[in-house]
Amino acid sequence: MTERVLLTHLHSDHFTDLGDVITTQWITTFEPTPLPLYGPGRTQEVVDGVLASLGPDIEYRLDGKYDRFQSDVGIDDDFINSVRNEVTPGTSALFLMTSDVVTDKVKGAFEGSHAELLHTNLSNEQEAKLREVFSG
Predict the structure, then answer these.
(1) Is the dihedral of CA 4, 26, 77, 130 positive or negative?
(2) What would the pLDDT profile of 88-102 be if each residue is shown by its tens digit?
(3) Whose CB has fewer CB within 10 Å in the chain, the N or C terminal residue?
(4) What is the pTM of this model?
């Protein structure tokens, strides 16, 4: 877990990933965790801008829509927990929602990588609820 951030100067190539640092911190701890950030003058303006750009995401999280997503669409708790245990700091996950897919072909696309393919099946009703959650 990142304990603090130092911006040496305010060139965009040094702070454009700040939003990812902030959201990764939140996602991996599952609770609000202070993240001290240090930098030169005007750093607060940069941080305020990044937080403003994350506004919709922050609202989404604070409104509990992620919790609604888990409970409403019927994704199995064991599956959620297995993904949570696999996606640890320093790793990432890509979630796809597909239909009429041949799993072996998708698995073949990942050959030679360190990726692990997990899957679950949703009923038509669950898929419709999931699409509704993602749409707004």
Answers:
(1) negative
(2) 777 777 777 777 777
(3) C
(4) 0.48
Three-state DSSP class for residue 78: helix
Q: How far apart are CA 17 and CA 5, in angstroms?
A: 11
Q: What are phi and psi of 5, to 5 degrees?
A: -125, 140
Q: If you ran DSSP here, which 8-state letter would residue 33 be given?
A: -
Counting Cα atoms < 13 Å in the Cβ hemisphere of 78 gives: 2
C-alpha 135: how far from its chain's center?
A: 16
The DSSP string of 70-109 is: HHHTT--HHHHHHHHHHS-TT--------SS--HHHHHHH
Residue predicted with more confidence, 68 or 81: 81
Most distant CA atoms of the chain, gap in Å: 54
Radius of gyration of the chain (CA): 18
